[in-house]
Amino acid sequence: MTPLLKVEALSKHYGRHLGCGDVNFTLWPGEVMGIVGESGSGKSTLLNCLAGHLAPDTGRVIFETRAHGPRDTVTMTEPERRWLARTEWAFVHQNPRDGLRMGVSAGGNVGERLMAVGARHYGEIRAQAEDWLGRVEIDPTRIDERPRAFSGGMRQRLQIARNLVTGPRLALMDEPTGGLDVSVQARLLDLLRGLVRRLGLSAVIVTHDLAVVRLLADRLMVMKDGRVVEEGLTDQVLDDPQHAYTQLLVSSVLQV
Amino acid sequence: MIEIRGVGKQFVLHNQGGIVLPVIQGADISVCRGECVALVGASGAGKSTLMRMIWGNYRCDEGSIRVAGVEISGAEPRQVLDLRGKSMGYVSQFLRLIPRVPTRQIVAEPLLAAGMNEAAAFARAEAMLARLNIPERLWSLSPTTFSGGEQQRLNIARGFILDLPVLLLDEPTASLDAVSCAVVLDLVCEAKARGAAILGIFHDAAARDSVCDREIDMTRFTPARRVA
Amino acid sequence: MSDYNFAYLDEATKRMLRRAILKAVAIPGYQVPFSRREMPMPYGWGTGGVQVTAACLVPEDTLKVIDQGADDTTNAVSIRKFFARVAGIATTEATAEATIIQTRHRIPETPLTEGQILVFQVPIPEPLRFLEPRETETRTMHALEDYGLIQVRLYEDTARHGEIARAYAYPVRVEGRYIMDPSPIPKFDNPKLHNAPALQLFGAGRECRIYALPPFTRVESLDFEDYPFTASKAAGQTCAICGAEDSYLDEVIIDDAGGRMFVCSDTDYCATRCAAQAEDAA
């Protein structure tokens, strides 16, 4: 088995301020990794560097592409990167407004990626969109409604469907459950868990919610001030934290 | 199947003045196929800690823990996860609840993860639930509202659903009535008979005596408490 | 002759425009920026087309100008007079006689021939404009052939109306590469863009863009396999004046009681047919 994603010595500065520094990890197919840390710890910077939204200062991000084997996504051309973003990657934004076209129907939102990779049969595009709406628990009869008419949780599920329709292998998620109320969160988490398992998807999930990573992530990376301070098996990091910051983080969670 | 050599563990509480709590020192234990070994010792002797270290839940600070030929200490997360899915089962006192997931699904999940088709996995899960006296009307419900005993039996069902070669049992019979307790002990015996290596903590001496071949006193490995 | 330089613009400006036109011809469908000049007419009145026409004109040219197919509407008449005055060239209303035809929103019914130049007035050159508001992003999308979005618009139409409802400015793909806005011509005219023997130039004055279809260029209207493009017009109607069945028709309200008639939008085509019918009758 070859790793799906290999990150080597990745650093990103904003001027003199460190965004994230010297990050190294290897993600294997089917693995879900959580990144936790407080606001400003560099977790979103890292995620955006992985997705090609930000250019890192140094380091390599080697992704195992379906067509051409391992390729450094930092040095590849913009068209190649965009192609990967449409076919092999999914990016789920915290705010579904950033990841959806609010003026386009649910079907159009899901169909866009299909059409971007060459689908030209309306009936088939629509059938696939209906199938995916069902899979993310949105009533397929609402296919022609715009996301404006959807609740926050539905929008987030629509964003997920829109991303997964082209069968990506790596999902990058930035606080996918942020801004949702608790019952909606639970439903979304359960859905994500099922999808990740059924599709054999690898994922990197950035969050500050430890309950989210406990449920979804196989392994965990803890970031502070742009650096990775601890990593390992999720339950091991949460139940037997070694680093002072992780201990603080775990002990700060309010018990219900 | 379980080989523990020179294992030590201490907790460092960075946020409480850097207190160091040594818990285990120089533990040597081995459990063979078809053997059930009980960990005994006073509360705080490190029984559960050792179980969790074998499970990979707690980090092993020193020494070596080998399960089914795989070194746990310093293993990659995916190696531990692979071991948990294929070779090692763990029944704890607590059920970690996943909202919305029905009981039947929770029990069937290890089978599904191992690649069994849904119909067969659910059939086997239901048989196990029935054997553990969990009423059929609860199978399609999430166990969030179950009683402690029901949750515990669910945990056991999940732990025994796969015929795993290594089982870790942390008080499997606690908070169970006599009938359920007997079923659990039967399950343990069956696992032993098919060659599983079992390491367990049983507070109930009668239960312990009925299934365990040996006892290991954890106080032997408990270091003197000192504050660094 | 007047005191203007030939065709109003100075020679340096015309050279600049010609460079832009040559580049546009070299990269069919690609929008070439140019530096527009103030023209003696307001934006929206065809300043882009006028500048392209001015750059193409030579004294031997015969110019025809149409607005929605008609030679006798304000816009057409004023531009024709403008060039007659500032370039002293011949003008005509007959499609076949013209060497340069400036048009707003139509392609003449009479097939164009090699050597003719058709200049389109373009209000909004960017086919992705209302889908993606950022100009930097639309340019990147063109550069990377990232065209999923425009197909989304066709999808939305089909989902809402059961067909691709867009009736004018129907987007096309040029030589399998650039997506292009053919200016607000009716989609009835789209097939005429394909493999046309004439040179087709598009000038957008307000937005400073020139693009082109060199002769015999492959131009395909976007569609779905199961909802193919159709060049539709008013169904089942014929021209009330010349009886043409094959031309694009305007609907004209003729009284306050809701009375209406359909007539050819191309006035030259209609007049030519009427003249031929009168000749036959005589």
Strand order of the largest sheet of chain C: 1-9-8-5-4-2-3
The CATH superfamily label of the domain at 34-56 and 87-221 in chain B reads P-loop containing nucleotide triphosphate hydrolases
Major beta sheet, strand line-up of chain B: 6-7-8-3-9
β-sheet strand percentage of chain C: 15-25%
Number of strand segments of chain C: 12
Tell me roughly what share of residues is in helical segments of chain C.
25-40%
Q: Give the helix proportion of chain B (percent range).
A: 25-40%
Order of helices and strands of chain B: EEEHEEHEHHHEHEHE
Low-pLDDT runs of 5+ residues of chain B are none
Give the overall shape of chain B: globular
Count up the helices of chain B.
Answer: 7
Mind summarizing the main beta sheet of chain B?
A: 5 strands, parallel
- What Rg of chain B do the Cα atoms give? 18 Å
Q: What's the multimeric state?
A: heterotrimer
> Which chains share the greatest interface?
A-B, 25 and 20 residues
What value does the Rg of chain C take, in angstroms? 19 Å
Global structural class of chain C: alpha/beta
Assigned CATH class of the domain at 34-56 and 87-221 in chain B: Alpha Beta
